[in-house]
Amino acid sequence: MIVERTFLAIAAASAVAAATATAVVAAAFALFWLLESSLGPAGAAATVSAVALLLMGIAALVAAWWAKTYRERHPPEPSLVERVADIVREKPLVSAGAALAAGLMALKNPQLAATLAAAFLTPKPRDPRR
Known about the structure:
The structure is a single chain. By secondary structure, this protein is an all-alpha fold. It has two domains: 75 residues, no CATH class; 42 residues, no CATH class. It is 86% helix and 0% strand. It has four helices and no strands. The protein is elongated and about 90 Å long. The mean pLDDT is 84.
């Protein structure tokens, strides 16, 4: 079921890409044909190239703007180290006491300390939508 949906999505994306490419080529030929009588073949080809370059530049600017606004709307989640550093800066005495308690616990039961360290240090799975 999932494989079928994946193949259907790939086929749909391929069809859209092929249709878009066909439309772009047809528009370029039409523009060339319109300009060829007044500018000649070389001038028409240069104008078609300039129009394509302009459109690609606009698309690149829009993509860069969208990426910047996306990063501003979705800041990266702070890592465990950053969270701990913030807690230590905000409450140094509490964090010193917690570190002392954790050290004593690790001395008494090293297997538990290893299990806790593995639980905190394993990376969480990435969101597939990103």
